[in-house]
Specification:
Elements (H helix, E strand, L loop, with lengths): L5 E3 L3 E2 L7 E2 L1 E4 L7 H9 L3 E3 L2 E5 L8 E6 L7 H9 L4 E5 L4 H14 L10 H8 L6 E8 L2 E11 L2 E9 L8 H15 L4 E7 L15 E5 L2 E4 L3
Parallel strand pairs: 11-12
Antiparallel strand pairs: 1-4, 2-3, 4-6, 5-6, 7-12, 7-13, 8-9, 9-10, 10-11, 13-14
Protein name: Aspartate/glutamate leucyltransferase
InterPro entries: Acyl_CoA_acyltransferase, Asp_Glu_LeuTrfase, N-end_Aminoacyl_Trfase, N-end_Aminoacyl_Trfase_C, N-end_Aminoacyl_Trfase_N
Organism: Hydrocarboniphaga daqingensis
Amino acid sequence: MDRIRLYLSTEHPCGYLPQRTARSLFVDPDFTLNPQRYEMLLSQGFRRGGDHVYRPRCSGCSACIPARIAVRDFRPNRSQRRCLKINADLELQVRQELTDEQFDLYRRYLRGRHSGGGMNPEDKPGFHNFLDCGWGTAEFWEMRLAGELIACAVVDRTPKALSAVYTFFDTELPDRSLGTYAVLVQVNQARELGMDHVYLGYWVPGSQKMEYKRNFKPLEVLTSAGWQILDE
């Protein structure tokens, strides 16, 4: 792989664990990225936010552990099968661009999930900068109920993998478990496309909002010895 210059960010509040600070290693923004190079970076624990590709590099903390689903080995558990069944009435539409309709759903999601404020931008320019990508991997997977947009998964496509960047949904439909459903849809689509993995970003022990990732078994995590199945 080409030599890549990395830049270390300044410290900022951690988005996963309270009362902690975080730093990230960013890929040189002048480095030319494409799906093949991005796939290699995913396999090394990086992920995308907007046009930037990064991985955590915090002082005295290594809680953020890269995680992925091995598509061929994954089998949904009972709860996940129920989730697929209850959402069988949804229609999937894949778009290549962000829309005002998606932004409206995103704002409702932030109000429902992060009413006390959070790390995510709330204005439209910030929404685009946060989720869109200028070098060509982002897709926006809309899930619709009788034509109404109720969930949207931002998905990066590489030759042999999908990466789950972000999902937002109607928080007034908790029985549908739309966040879980969005991941299951990505796994099913990756399997149909003959892909190897769905990357889930970081599993963070001790972070309640990241704990759901353990439910997708077998979950692979990146360790000093390479990718390993997460032990129970």
